[in-house]
Amino acid sequence: MICPFCGNEETQVKDSRPAEDGAAIRRRRLCGRCEARFTTFERVQLREIAIVKRNGRRSVFERDKLERSFQIALRKRDVDPEDTARAINGIVRKLESFAEGDVPSEHVGELVMTALHELDHVAYIRYASVYRNFDEAKDFEAFVDKELGD
Length: 150
Known about the structure:
Helices cover 44% and strands 22% of the residues. By secondary structure, it is of the alpha+beta class. The protein has two domains: 44 residues; 102 residues.
């Protein structure tokens, strides 16, 4: 593993332990050159996931983008990071088991919406406001009214 601080290729694993409910291995590493410490995560990848955008373009699934979506929606919300990690892992497992291998981006969005709805309603509304691409405030208001059952 290359040191992110000095680029040295000689790093040493100092500690390994399960993370994200056993879905990943967390490794603490030490650089032999600059002596910086950093953490890496190792996860199982069953197969490459291709996301098919609305315009038909295909791109490789990036877990980091999914994690960023959750971070943005959950910003300043009191949600346990372990619950968030479980939700993200669940989505990735569902995507990996998707029958065709090519996953429509709408399917990913719906999985995120479902997970956020279970984690935090404010985060759910935040994500929905971007994902559903509301044109006007009344679209947003109608969505919130429908979701809250008013």
